[in-house]
Design brief:
Belongs to the ABC transporter superfamily. The chain has 321 residues and is α/β, with parallel strands linked by helices. It contains twelve helices and twelve strands.
Length: 321
């Protein structure tokens, strides 16, 4: 098992109160496996990824749970210990490469420094690894393009560079935080094909954070649906997306145009997701749920059917069937 997250909680301690951005999250990712972490904006997906990498800044901090990477708990590790892991064994691909690539440094400088930050190799060897990584992600003439600057690449090519940087050390785990959101569908398809090929080729595990169920359906083997800082349903792609049990997952599927017949009206989920500062008691989805009952005022426990996990007092088995 590459990654096992157990009851992870990450809270932000503000003047207005404690914001429970991640509140008891658990999931597993095997070697070479891709897990899609999906949900609305503000559900805690990105903070979960940042927590794994130790990138949560004050006033936020991990307040409980375990992050077992290759069997070793990352919670409580010193900044020095995390720097040795981050970028080398666990890499991250961010949503906007223009925010992560330094605009005043050439691609060569950024990639060579990334290699030499973890490995004591010559500049020539580091450069050779950078050329190889750019070639792996499909950038033509990689030796020449190293001299370019980020603004000289298109959006899709910049994202390929970001992926190449993440691959420089052949990490065991990559966390991708909505890396294709700003790209058109053609480039998005190319990036996803690159990710799938590299995951299979090198046996890398991925946590793919996204709100795009279509992307996750075509990329991941497992899906975890997140709402209000908690995972409400998880299982294989076929189980969760073809036979959703939790009302929230059903609501997400109803909001996807591809799931409807021509001319059929989309059915959005009513209301807004609750603020992490003011979560309702019991099931956090109950105020927006079409299946809510009085029982939902209590906290639902996790249940499972053939590995398909859910947290709900009123699971929609008939709809799933």
């Amino acid at each position: 098992m590459t990654l096992k997250v157990e009851n992870l909680s990450t809270h932000f301690f503000t003047r207005e109160g404690v914001a429970k951005a991640v509140d008891g999250v658990s999931f597993e990712v095997g070697r070479g496996e891709i897990l899609g972490l999906v949900g609305e904006s503000g559900s805690g997906k990105s903070i979960t990824g940042f927590s794994i990498l130790g990138l949560v800044d004050p006033p936020g901090r991990v307040t409980g749970g375990k992050i077992l990477f290759q069997g070793q708990d990352l919670v409580g590790r010193s900044p020095h210990e995390m720097r040795a892991i981050r970028g080398k064994r666990i890499a991250m691909i961010f949503q906007d490469p223009m925010m992560t690539l330094n605009p005043v440094l050439s691609i060569e400088t950024q990639m060579v420094e990334t290699v030499r930050a973890h490995d004591k190799v010559s500049k020539a060897e580091a450069r050779a690894r950078a050329v190889e990584a750019l070639g792996l992600v499909g950038i033509p003439s990689p030796d020449e393009r190293l001299a370019a600057y980020p603004h000289q690449f298109s959006g899709g090519m910049r994202q390929r560079v970001a992926i190449a940087i993440a691959l420089l050390h052949r990490p065991e785990l990559i966390i991708a935080d909505e890396p294709t959101t700003a790209l058109d569908v053609t480039i998005q398809s190319q990036i996803l094909a690159v990710i799938q090929r590299l995951s299979t080729e090198f046996g890398m595990s991925l946590v793919w954070i996204s709100h795009d169920l279509g992307v996750v359906a075509g990329l991941a083997q497992k899906v975890a649906v997140m709402y209000a800082g908690r995972i409400v349903e998880t299982g294989t792609v076929d189980d969760v997306l073809d036979r959703p049990i939790h009302p929230y997952t059903i609501g997400l599927m109803r909001s996807v145009p591809a799931n409807l017949d021509r001319g059929e009206t989309l059915t959005p989920i009513p209301g807004m997701a609750p603020s992490p500062l003011k979560r309702p008691s019991g099931c956090p989805f109950r105020l927006r749920c079409f299946a809510a009952t009085a029982a939902c005022e209590a906290e639902p426990e996790a249940a499972a059917i053939d590995g398909h996990l859910y947290r709900c007092f009123n699971p929609q088995f008939e709809r799933a069937a």
